[in-house]
Amino acid sequence: MTPDGPESDSLGNLERRIQLAIQLVARLRQEKDAALGEAATALSDKQRLAEEVRTLQAERKQVRARIEKLLGQIDQLGAG
């Protein structure tokens, strides 16, 4: 004997809704894990780029000092 009636439909609807909720939770967990991975990669990239900027700024400062020194030597040639 199979129950055919409103209770059976309600139970079936509930089962479907629970299955959909389970699928949604699983998908959201995957998306969260992916987002955390992307965030970790972005943080690593940020740190790497910040170090690269510091290195380039130090190199620029050294180049500027060398150019100023060369310009000073050129000025001495003109004064002599």
Write the topology of this structure:
Elements: H1 6-79
What features would you describe in this structure?
There is one protein chain. The chain is mostly helical. Helix content is 92%, strand content 0%. It contains one helix and no strands. The protein has one helix at residues 6-79.
Largest sheet: none
Portion in beta strands: under 5%
Looking at the structure, what is the overall shape?
rod-shaped
Distance between the termini: 116 Å
Short descriptors:
80 residues; mainly alpha
In short:
The protein has 1 helix and no strands. The protein has one helix at 6-79.
